[in-house]
Amino acid sequence: MFGTFDIAASGMEAQRIRLNTISSNLSNVNTTRGTNGDPYRRRDVVFSSAPNFDDTLSANSGGQGSSVGVKISGVIEDTKPFKVVYEPGHPDAGSNGYLRLPNVNVVEEMVNMISAMRAYEANVTAFKTSKDMISSSLEIGG
């Protein structure tokens, strides 16, 4: 009965981490030199399904078990090439005058941010709907 809360909460947490990663990408759109000397490399969050504790117990005792919820598998770096512009006056430009910029596309990041916000809102709605259903069933029984 309360599993829907766990599912919605895991979805909200996953989207919160995704939004933080997108914010990091946007804030580093002009970072031409990181700790390794290269420009900032765009990051993306990888999701996977998270097993439900009750289903894990069932699977260990011979049951089928199913996966519910979301977990973060990791945060990966985008392998797209860096943008290259001719800017000979920039301190990070090479000897040929070309500057390597991060592989962050602002429009793509804004679309991803809207998508993550909508997914977060959907999880909030699912959480609230489950709460309302449980509350209504308690009123009927009482």
List the topology elements.
Blueprint: H1 3-27, E1 43-51, H2 53-60, E2 67-77, E3 83-86, E4 98-101, H3 106-141
Antiparallel strand pairs: 1-2, 3-4
Helix pairs in contact: 1-3
Report the portion of residues in β strands: 15-25%
| Secondary-structure element string | HEHEEEH
Outline type: elongated
Mean pLDDT score: 88
Q: What distance lies between the first and last C-alpha atoms, to the nearest angstrom? A: 18 Å
The overall strand count is 4
Helix fraction bin: 40-55%
Number of helical runs? 3
> What is the makeup of the main sheet?
2 strands, antiparallel
Low-confidence residue ranges: 60-65
Total of domains: 2
- Radius of gyration from the alpha-carbon trace, in angstroms: 22 Å
Provide the spatial order of strands within the biggest beta sheet. 1-2
